[in-house]
Design goal:
five-stranded mixed β-sheet, alpha+beta, 2 domains, Glutaredoxin, four-stranded antiparallel β-sheet, 9 strands, 9 helices, 263 residues
């Protein structure tokens, strides 16, 4: 009997020892990975800050791809894997939809809502609001200008955004518009090509004032991530370039939405 009790006690000790060993053993790679995945979004955001301390964060959230987090820094959209990787580039769905570009447009559109209206030239008096960034010598901007001039239903807030590296005379033309007694008419004269090749006089007392305003608009544009012109913001939608069919569609959508509201 004593021998049987001794054997039972020995087995019990071995079992306890085995359980202790199971608790103290090193994690397998799969278990470690599972723990990582179990971290909260805030924990992963802090982890990102430790690994990449110089990357500014405007927003941080889980992306459409499991295990990959989306970071908005300014108007840039980048991705982070908790494994320690920072991913720059575009992500497409299997249907060819660029979800990175869509998110970037969403971020820029949100910023567009807060830009100061007093820096713009107001052209037209229609009921459809159009925010526009244009270069006086940009051929695509002029194409869009001709399109909008054919419509009486828009009110445009034009921010002059001369691309000096591409169009050396654009800044002077922008100053001419800003310093005019009738900026809206001066805008029409310049963008129609009427002032091309002519000597433009900028009043001395206005030159520095106009320069400050253009510098402010440049800063607004940089904050929006603008690198080219024209760019339009209409009814919550961002349209880049003189994409007339897209502009037409966005403006038509306003009519459709209005009819739906009335119904």
């Amino acid at each position: 009997m004593r021998k049987l009790i001794t054997i039972i006690m020995t087995l019990a000790l071995l079992l306890v020892s085995g359980l202790s060993y199971a608790e103290d053993r090193a994690e397998t790679p799969k278990e470690t990975e599972a723990k990582k995945e179990a971290k909260s979004e805030d924990e992963i955001k802090k982890e990102f800050g430790y690994v990449f301390p110089n990357v500014p964060i405007d927003s941080f959230r889980e992306s459409q791809i499991p295990g990959l987090y989306e970071i908005v820094a300014g108007t840039q959209v980048i991705y982070f894997s908790p494994k320690g990787y920072l991913v720059f580039g575009e992500i497409f769905t299997k249907d060819g939809v660029n979800i990175t570009a869509e998110r970037r447009a969403e971020v820029t559109s949100k910023k567009m809502k807060s830009i100061p209206a007093d820096k713009a030239i107001v052209v037209g008096d229609g009921d459809k609001k159009v925010i526009e960034f244009s270069d006086p010598d940009c051929p695509f901007c002029r194409r869009a200008f001709r399109y909008f001039e054919s419509r009486a239903d828009v009110k445009r807030y034009v921010y002059l955004f001369p691309l000096k590296n591409l169009h050396p005379d654009a800044e002077k033309k922008a100053k001419y518009i800003l310093c005019s007694d009738d900026p809206a008419q001066a805008y029409r004269d310049v963008f129609s090509g009427k002032m091309d090749g002519k000597e433009l006089e900028i009043p001395k007392e206005c030159d520095s004032v106009a320069q400050r305003r253009l510098d402010e608009i440049q800063m607004i544009g940089q904050n929006l991530g603008l690198t080219g012109t024209p760019v339009f913001y209409i009814n919550g939608k961002l349209v880049r370039g003189a994409n007339i069919p897209e502009l037409e569609k966005v403006l038509t959508d306003i009519d459709l939405e209005g009819r739906n509201v009335k119904k």
